[in-house]
Fold:
Amino acid sequence: MLNPVEQTFWQERWVEGTTGWDLQGPHPAFATVVKLLAACGVDIAGARVFVPGAGRAHDGAAFARLGAEVVAEDFAPGAVAAAQALYRDERGLIIRQGDATVVPAAEIGTWDIVFDRAMLCALRPELRGAFLDAVARRLRSGGMHVVLLFDQIPVTPERPAGSGPPFQITVADYRGLAGERFAVATTEDWTTVWPAAKGAAATDKPRQMSETVVLARRKNSASEVLR
Ligand SMILES: C[S@@+](CC[C@H](N)C(=O)[O-])C[C@H]1O[C@@H](n2cnc3c(N)ncnc32)[C@H](O)[C@@H]1O
Structure:
């Protein structure tokens, strides 16, 4: 269900323009994601791909360009507007407002891929269960949760352990959260390097973070009761 406190928090980021997670284009690990999906026997062309917490929808657009039918969703109106400004006319991509924890009845079990970059890791820990339940309800049996995990967030005096967003989640944490719903199929270590900010000096160190790529297959849902 829509959480107005969370929605206001994120909408303020969009209004202020503090969207430092944005990579100005598809995630640099996108080609790796494509390779791993192929190795797991998942065809992107023709697949139904759902992108929760899509932000500017760069990744949704990249899947659409490979022939997928994509819905990129965000509950912050500022995100939806920013994505539409970039990708309104992208063939195969629908950009809409919606809460990642709410699954329309007509869409239960209809998605082949849920692509999740900085969505699970953006959520306060107490919201993760409801989000993963929703991912499980969306995916058909055998469908893939593709998730990038900030698995090694440096601890600093300004950023004590356990603070966020983003919140650190390791692959072991993910396995624990996934429980009986998903089976990790494959993982690949990844370090994301952010594009240089406008006006940055040539000597400035580029910002980088570990974002391990995880592909987890939806187990057979036939006998399961989800919240
Ligand atoms: C850290 S940003 C990541 C955006 C994008 N995935 C990217 O990698 O650039 C997290 C996004 O999730 C959205 N969000 C957070 N909670 C959400 C929820 N419950 N439902 C839908 N969107 C949500 C926020 O509005 C924000 O745009």
